[in-house]
Design goal:
The structure is a homodimer.
Chain A (H helix, E strand, L loop, with lengths): L5 H14 L13 E6 L2 E7 L8 H9 L7 E4 L13 H7 L4 E4 L11 H8 L3 E4 L3 H6 L2 H9 L3 E9 L3 E3 L11 H13 L2 E5 H7 L12 H4 L11 E5 L18 E4 L17 H12 L3 E5 L2 H9 L5 E7 L1 E2 L5 E2 L13 E11 L2 E9 L4
Parallel strand pairs in A: 3-4, 4-5, 6-11, 6-12, 8-9, 8-11, 9-10
Antiparallel strand pairs in A: 1-2, 1-3, 7-14, 12-16, 15-16
């Protein structure tokens, strides 16, 4: 069992903090930070900013230069061992002659996990693993899920009044939540790999479903320049080919993947001739490297996703309003006959966003 | 304008802290704390514990004894000037020859406000008013409201799933919220002057609607001995005389006021031959000295109270559950046609209670 010094904790914390600099841009790559120290002084540091650009270790090694020799490198994720768009980082660390590498966690991909560490050890470098592992995992929940299960991490965004209504009986709903909550939604969109919705929502709201830099919270704009904006791909379920080219969806920045007969991607159907959500998500992960799906849609899709146990996290905005139960509910009818059947969740975060409430909750699925 | 020293703030904070010792027992009296200092040392302190027992100033003066002469008294509320169950506190302070009195706020009763202060000043005592006034007001929102308006302060307790359902379509609802939330409800009940419900709720749940010491949170039990327990009066609206003597309501500790034709109190009806809620509340304040009503009932009463703008604060427990919109909603149908009609609230507190969420919110009523 590796033992770590206070200095080690401090440096890995710094590496984790650095890694967060990439949360809007690295998809589908993971967020990774690296700090290189010599004689307890930082001589190099960096993080992965964008897929296709250098990894965290490369930035840190460039900054350290010759000082990397005999140094200790702190990396939030096991250095890669394969030749991709960049040479393997393990090789870079070996060439730079670092003496020691501390990784917060192994690579979550079972096919390569441990290879980078072995490569380093075979070159005579001391390697320790597991420092602040939980914090490092929290940098990349979606990347880790896809690597381990082949499925994307799915966040379901919902907005309702305090009494659970998303619209009045006549459909009116603008605006249930405040401008701050809508800015907050932009921040979630910006972190996702894909924004998923249905043709119904796209048509009803003539929704762009992209990230508008001007609508991001100021705190994000401050360290995320407009010219660096990464648009998640917009995935629209359009089983009945209802989308038309005049919609804003087709006139705004950001790629699209239309899931429709004859659409951009295969329209996988289930026995009921509806889009097979699980198979579609798996295909999006496998063929399009999508780690993280942010869902904004209506009650029908929300209900299907919950019933099929495909939601990893619910992000529920509640406006401090009472609309009456003659409005439209969050999930429509669920047909429960017993309290033991209701869907239970664990609340993981609770905060106020402007005048509204934001609840993060993880469904606790029952065995099916 | 009075100016206060850091010592003054410190001592008044202490008096406010002391006053909180009475929050379960003083009703219908206000919570009041008092600290007496001489040469910046505390020589006496106390708080009002129970109606009919000594006021805060009396406790503090007894403790100070002869040291009260020339001392400064910090009181969270203007000392009373009238002979009630105890002699006026202003007289006590004069007799003890204190040199200075600092009050956090004047008496909220417009008929006596300022009299105690004048009595002290006429006796040559220096009086300052307004130190930590907002904090002192927060000790007694219900007492202040009744004194200023003649109406009680009304808290409406509700419990629902995250999607706003209080029960399944078939009426099943045990238990939506957790044991911790139910303990929390006991703490609210214990602070109220009256617990209000309807015969329908009492009969359906065979509800006791009293305070059960064993069910109070441990943190409250620790400084509120079981033998000191004060039971709020249970006010039950029973327009159709449906209550029967075999109900738990009649077999459990605590007084009752049945609002029914031929009941304990006058059954005031409106033009629709329903109980006139506003007139009933006013009568409860006036004839029964009830400052603070805690409402636990179903959607029908909740809807009427909200529509008649009688609720001062909503206390909403949300369980992390999804029940579907085919369940029973919090307020039933409200018939809104426009978003501008919906009831808006301000959230004043948000926290987790066990696995549940507790939201405190104040309705923002529109002019009617």
């Amino acid at each position: 069992m590796a033992t770590f010094t206070p200095q080690d904790y401090l440096m890995m914390s710094r590496a984790i903090k650095l890694a967060q600099g990439g949360i809007y841009t690295t998809a589908p790559n993971p967020n990774v930070g690296c700090v290189i120290t010599r004689d307890d002084q930082i001589v190099g540091e960096g993080f992965h900013y964008r897929a296709g650009e250098p990894h965290a270790e490369v930035h840190a090694l460039r900054m350290a230069g010759k000082l990397a020799e005999g140094a200790t490198a702190y990396v939030t994720l096991e250095p890669c061992s394969h030749y991709g768009r960049t040479p393997p980082c393990a090789e870079g660390l070996i060439k730079a002659k670092v003496a020691k590498v501390i990784c917060a966690m192994q690579d979550p991909n079972p096919q390569v996990s441990g290879r980078g560490i072995n490569m380093l050890r075979e070159a005579g470098i001391e390697v320790q693993v597991g420092l602040l592992e939980a914090d490092a995992q929290a940098l990349n929940p979606a990347f880790i899920k896809r690597m381990q299960t082949g499925m994307p991490f799915v966040q379901l965004k919902m907005a309702a009044s305090l009494d659970g209504q998303t619209a009045l009986a006549n459909g009116q709903s603008q605006w249930i939540t405040s401008a701050q909550a809508r800015q907050d939604v932009q921040a979630f969109r910006a972190q996702s790999g894909a924004i998923l919705s249905t043709s119904q929502t796209v048509i009803e709201d003539n929704a762009s479903l992209n990230v508008r830099w001007d609508d991001l919270p100021l705190s994000i704009q401050a360290h995320y320049p407009a010219e660096e904006l990464r648009q998640p791909v917009r995935v629209i379920l359009d089983r009945q080919n209802q989308l038309s080219a005049d919609l804003k969806l087709f006139q705004t920045a950001g790629d699209r993947l239309i899931v429709a007969p004859g659409g951009d991607v295969e329209c996988l159907l289930n026995d009921d001739q509806q889009i097979d959500l699980r198979a579609t998500f798996e295909m999006l992960a496998k063929q399009h490297n999508i780690n993280h799906i942010w869902v904004e849609a209506g009650a029908t899709l929300a209900r299907s996703l919950m019933q099929q146990q495909l939601v990893d996290e619910v992000v529920l905005y509640q406006a401090p309003k009472l609309m009456g139960s003659d409005g439209r509910g969050l999930f429509g009818a669920l047909g429960f006959q017993e309290m033991s059947q209701v869907i239970e969740l664990d609340i993981t975060e609770l905060k106020q966003v402007g005048r509204d409430i934001r609840i993060l909750a993880k469904p606790i699925y029952k065995e099916q």
